[in-house]
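Exercise 3.2. Students should predict the tertiary structure of the chain below and write it as structure tokens, then compare their answer with the key that follows.

Predict this chain's 3D structure.
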Amino acid sequence: MLDQFSRTRLLLGREAMEKLHSSRVAVFGIGGVGGYVCEALIRSGVGRFDLVDDDKICLTNLNRQIIATRKTIGKYKVDVMKERMLDINPDAEVTVRKCFFLPENADEFPFDDYDYVVDAVDTVSAKLELVMQAQKHGVPVISCMGAGNKLDGSQFRVADIYKTKMCPLAKVMRYELRKRGVKKLKVVYSEEEPTRPIEDASISCRTHCVCPPGTERKCTERRDIPGSVAFVPSVAGLLIAGEVVKDLTKEKATEPVG
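Answer key:
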């Protein structure tokens, strides 16, 4: 019988599709990268999700985030992403957590119940804690390295963290993970040399912030606000989603469909 996953089933087979349907994937960070991860995974047949983010959609997100439109500005990213995902597959289970993942609240997340963890967060401390929690609970994890200040999506690669080059974030992560005894970590990273953002006070978030009054966490709190474009974080997100699907189904042999 034809359904929305028929074309995918032609390539992966029934058993793999059943595995995806029963899998629970936690996506930490629903921004430019994480949004495309969710988009591709829901369209691939993954059946259960945990979406973790406390940000609201901002005007400056419209240039690259799949959930950002004029109508969604000011809404929580996890809420908008959930609504979009259920429009694509109403049978999916989508749990939202309106918070930022931090070392301090790591114990509040059911890592034992996750089949895969996607790290699409911004801060090194959160990334390191996600990796350590995933390792502790034996859950596969993939981590996105720096996607900001890049212009060439074709230079993204999938590799172990210790085989990366050029990416400043990956360099920091390698150092910190080695200290913690982590021997491997699958990452998506870019070999493109970062571009230095143009210093233009007329478009600076520091001097022209458009976040709603009372917003607790603003991009202006960052030491350096990165530039970004539509065709870079989307590539990283789609690469991550492809790796998640491959890893979740790799033990399932593809069977003929007839």
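Discussion points: The domain at 16-249 is CATH 3.40.50.720 (Rossmann fold). Residues 161 and 185 are 5 Å apart (CA to CA).
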